[in-house]
Amino acid sequence: MTALASSNLSPDVANGVACDHCGLPVPRGLFEPDATVQFCCNGCRTVYDMIRSHGLDDYYRVRDTVDAPRQSARTSGERYQGFDSPAFQAEHCHAVAGGCYVCSDLRLEGVHCAACMWLVERLPKMLPGVASVRLHLRDAVARVIWNPQETQLSSIASTLDRLGYPSHPARHASAAEVRKRNERTQLIRLGVAGACAGNNMLLAIALYAGEFSGIEGQYATLLRAVSAGIGLLSLAWPGSVFFRGAWVALRNRVASLDVPIALALAAGGVAGLVNTIAGTGEIYFDSLSVLVFLLLVGRWFQARQQRWADEAVGLLGSFTPTMCRIVRDQGVAEVPTDSLTPDAIVEVRSGELIPADGVVTVGMSKVDRSLLSGESVAVPVEPDDEVFAGTQNIGSTLHVRVTSTGSDTRVARLMHLVNEGVRDKPAIVQFTDKAAMWFVTVVVAAATATFIGWSLAATTSVAVSHTIALLIVACPCALGLATPLTMAVAIGVAARRQMLVKNASVFEALAGTGRMLLDKTGTITRGRPTVAEWVGPDWLGPVVANAESHSSHPVARALVEAYGDVAIDRAERIPKDVEELGDGGIRAMVDGRPLLVGSPRFLASRRVTLKNSIGDKLAEFESRGLTAIGIALDGTAEAACALGDKIHAAAADAIVGLAKQGWDVTIVSGDAQGVVHRVASEVHLDESRALGGVLPEQKLELVGDNANGRQNTVMIGDGVNDAAALAAADVGIAVEGGAEASLAAADVYVAAPGLMPIVELIELAKRTKRVVRQNLVIALGYNLIAVSLAAAGWITPLIAAILMPISSATVLASAMSVALGSRS
Amino acid sequence: MSILYIMVPVALALAVTALIAFVWATRSGQFDDPDSQPYRMLFDDEPVDDKRDNSPPPKGE
């Protein structure tokens, strides 16, 4: 429900009515002829009532002022009692103002414009006890401060929920604090480097001007001394990151661009200091300060883009409900899931998540295990069957005897694997870093040759001065600035196409070739049922959709998606007295006749006649592995509907495209082998490239097998069952609608549906790599000229001062070409 | 030109002052969220009542 429409929608949309909250068209099935206000969904209705009842109608005025994109509201209806538990409070909240108030950061879904900020920050008016709310618009994180005597976090979260902003805890509070402190230190470092560079350039202009027009010795000494002081400050503090980086790289024997940078900075610093004290020769400090500043600017931009992508998908996942219903002798009670112990009996109603691993004691139902196993078809369960935490009960109410809870559940063990995978992930060596090592070798060789040559041809002091000049002009400044900027631009381009890249090094891996493992459910297919076939009178479709429109069941949503926009042909056929029955069916009155919608078993239990062609069709659908839904009027089956997991449009084209780019594509799925083979043939893949029945642990092994080889392994998936493999792969890509665990584990999150964005991402990676190489050639070309001039002893401060900005500017222009290329 | 002996320290002192202000601003979190502030200043602290006439959302039919 996040469809965006152009903001110039008029109140009466051409073919329908606009929602009174969000302005999007109202589906015909939800149009209420008698009502004065109309809504496109229940979320919008809840939010509209909430805003009205608190006298915050100004929201709509503010929204028009800021010209916000239209987005329908979504509420979760959760009660957030888990937020009040001591364990949660200890982890995510801290006392402020001497303990009178409590502060916590909440990450809000559904924040999309400045008007959202206006509304969220009006919370103290709606809820007494809330002292202040500040919403960080970009991160969608709200900092809430409240008085624990007057209100509770659960009330705050559920109020926000009813405003259309379901909340999640935002990261571990102390981790967030550390991150924020790091960011501020980085910014201060950048500021100090900038101030040093600016002031040193002023002094340098005076000194250069003095060189041409004549300057008294004492003033030259003064200016040189001040310049040296500022230069040393910028080397010692902001510049220390390069020395530290180079030291770490050398100690671990890994390639890094920091090494040549540190070499040049050190050589320049020492020579400059010696010359300043001696009072003769070049002092270099102006160039060094500017160098440090420019290099830090590049890195800061890259870090900022990466952090943004990381924040945007860094939801702290929870797969089990925070509250569950425990069955005791004296009745059913709601308790926090954390307090569950083995052998307790919990009640799980239709549509709810199972809170812990356990064994069914009472009830027969179906369980959707797709999150855990990737199976697209719900599994029937009956007493004595095992069920797992985090899976969804989609049939009727079950009683489950808990066997393991919390960190002992299967999903928790899987998450442990994910964390291990993230920790042990192989680092991708950046192309620039590899080039840097060659570069260092060449520079050191050239410096040695220059020193020996000039020592023989002239004096040692001349040799030293020429060698130092060479080391400084050989600093890969343009390269050090351009590579992070190219990455930052590429991450920005990707983000505009709804691909969030958390780590720029994935471009390196994606630009090459290797193995690509694709999950099926939710990746190649949509991961949710859609109407595949309909047999029966056409007028019945919209009627059924209307009757199902108030249910949140996946089957109901599929029917609404298929027929919700079609008008019911006669007014008397609009369903009345719609009732959702406990065993997964719907009953309503249509044109004075009783309508029943549900599975064949449900219809049979209501004594519906299935002995006709419709009944046969239902049996055929079930035998083909599809979900069959029957529609009965007056006790006779009138229509049959088959629901299946449809393959994304253009999935076949995308897979062909990936293969053409040299990727070795394999489907790995937890689903049954037969289903996987059928999907493989639909996307033109050989059966040997389709593995079915793969457990999450086996997916991890498959990724591990490949990681040992020289090939890159890319894993694409969406579920918790893919998360461990996503974390361990060289590049993990989580796709639209993925579980939070997979988003956290992956390097890239693709928020647009289908596989086509992945083809685009790979094209972007190739373009990025091309630009990085182009930068390298340009930067090294300049360095080569400069080094040759220096070796010949022709480098003067003026030539250096001209060469450096030209090379930086050229490389910057080249970095920006990543963005230009994507627009065409 | 001996004024340089005064002017250079004065210029440096000014630069250091600006730098201290920047460090203080950063430490107190003023650069933490550059995206929200430009909008926040557009919102009135208290909604003005006489503008309410424009505020009701468009009615459906």
Terminal-residue CA separation of chain A: 31 Å
- Side-by-side strand order of the widest sheet of chain A: 15-27-26-25-16-23-24
Largest interface: A-B, 46 and 34 residues
Mean pLDDT across all residues of chain A, rounded? 80
Number of strands of chain A: 27
Largest sheet of chain A: 7 strands, mixed
Instruction: Give me the Rg of chain A, rounded.
Output: 32 Å
Order of helices and strands of chain B: HH
Query: What is the helix tally of chain A?
Result: 28
Helix content of chain A: 40-55%
Please estimate the helix content of chain B: 40-55%
Instruction: Please state the oligomeric state of the protein chains shown.
Output: heterodimer
Write up this protein:
The complex is a heterodimer of chains A (824) and B (61). By secondary structure, chain A is α+β, with helices and mostly antiparallel strands. Chain A folds into five domains: 170 residues, Alpha-Beta Plaits, CATH 3.30.70; 137 residues; 86 residues, Calcium-transporting ATPase, cytoplasmic transduction domain A, CATH 2.70.150.10; 146 residues, Rossmann fold, CATH 3.40.50; 122 residues, Calcium-transporting ATPase, cytoplasmic domain N (3-Layer(aba) Sandwich). In chain A, 49% of the residues lie in helices and 17% in strands. Chain A is built from 28 helices and 27 strands. In chain A, the strands form five sheets. Chain A has a seven-stranded mixed beta sheet with strand order 15-27-26-25-16-23-24, sandwiched between helices. In chain A, strands 7-6-8-14-9-12 form a six-stranded antiparallel beta sheet, with no helix packed on it. In chain A, a hairpin with a 5-residue loop joins strand 18 and strand 19. Helix content of chain B is 46%, strand content 0%. Chain B has two helices and no strands. Chains A and B meet through helix 2, helix 4, strand 3, helix 7 and helix 8 of A and helix 1 of B.
